[in-house]
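INFO  loader      accepted 1 record
INFO  loader      residues=381
INFO  predictor   begin
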Amino acid sequence: MKYLVITTSLLMLMISTSVSSPGREQSTGKTREPVDTVGYAVTPSQTAAVMNLCDSIEKARCLKNERAHPVMSGGELIAAICPHDDYLYAAPVYFHVMREITAPVILMIGVSHHARHKGIEGRLIFDDFKSWKGPYGKVRVSSLRDDIIEALPEEIVMVDGDIHAKEHSLEAFLPFLQHSEFSDRNKALERRDYSFPRIIPILVTRFKGESQGEAAGRLASVLRKEMKERDWILGKDLQVLISADCVHYGDKKWGGRNYAPFGTDAKGYEKALKQEMKIIDSSLTGVIDDGKIDRFRSLVERDDPEWPYKIPWCGVYSIPFGLSAARRLCELAGREAPEGFLLKYQTSLEPGKISPEAEGLGVTNINTLHHWVGYAAVGYW
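INFO  predictor   done
INFO  writer      dumping C-alpha cells
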C-alpha cells in the first residue's frame, strides 16, 4: 500500500552541470518563478493543507483502486495524465497520480496555452532555466534536458524561457513533487545515488498529422539512448507526467468562444459527462497503441491551428504526444505497451473539491453549469 507522508522539511536538491553545444542556447542559470499564485499552493503551509485534505478525502478511493488494479502495487508507474487546473477544483484528482510519482527524474509534458497565438507549431519547447521555484525552494532541472536538446533534430526544437515563464501547465506539479516523500521513492534513493526530484519540462505545440507521432518517436529514441547510457529503468528512474485538463464546457467566460452542445442545464451536464467517459474509455485506458492515440485525436482534435478543438480538451496535443512517447519508450526497452487505468474523474462542479479553508487558496475562474472543467487522473503501468 502507498500512503502519502506529510512533511514540511525542505528537500535537498542537487544538479549536474548542464552542457550545450555551439548553436544551442545555453541555460540562463536563473530560477523560474511561479506564474499562478492564486490557484496553486505557493507556501509550505498551503501545500501541507492541500495534501492533508486530499489524503482525508481520497484515501478510501486509493485503496479501492489498488484492489481493482493489482499492477499498482506490483510495479512502477510509467506515465500518467494529470490535471493542471486550480487546486480548489482539481487537487483530489492530482492526488491519485502524484502519489504514484516515485522516480528521481520526471519528464513533464505540458500544454502551451500561448504557442498557437504566436503561430508556433511543429516544435517541442524547452526551457532554459537551471531550476524552478516551488513552495519549499528550488526544483532543479535535470542536465539530461540539455543532452536531449543536443540530440534532437534542430527543426523540432525550440528553447524559450519566456514561453515557459508565462505557462502554468507544468508548475502545477511542483508543490506535489516537493512535498511528497513516498516509501518507494526512499527505496529508490537507497538503490541509486540521486537527489530528487529533478525535472525535464517540455511544452508540446501542434504537430500536423503523422508528424506528431514521428516527433514523439524521435524524443523516445533519444531518451532511450540516454537512459541506457545511465543504466536507468523506465518507471524506476524516469517517469512521464502529462499535463492535461479535460473538457472546458459552457457558454460563459470562455474568452468569446463557447462549447455547450448539450445545453447548460442538469441534463446537458449529464450528457457532457457521458461524452467524457466515451473519450476516456475508448482511447485513454487499456493497452495503449497507435489506434487508441489516433482515436483520441479523431474525437478531440480539429486539423486547424486557429481553433484546434472538436471538443475543447486542454490536452489536445500533450496527451497524444506524451502517450506516443511513452509507448515508444516501452517498445524500445523491450517491454509490453503501457496499460492505462482511470484512477479518478471529476469536474469543477462535483463534491470533493478542496475546502477554501486551505490557507487562502483562490480560483482563477467561476464554476457553474455555464462554465465548468473536467479532470482525469489516468495512470499507465
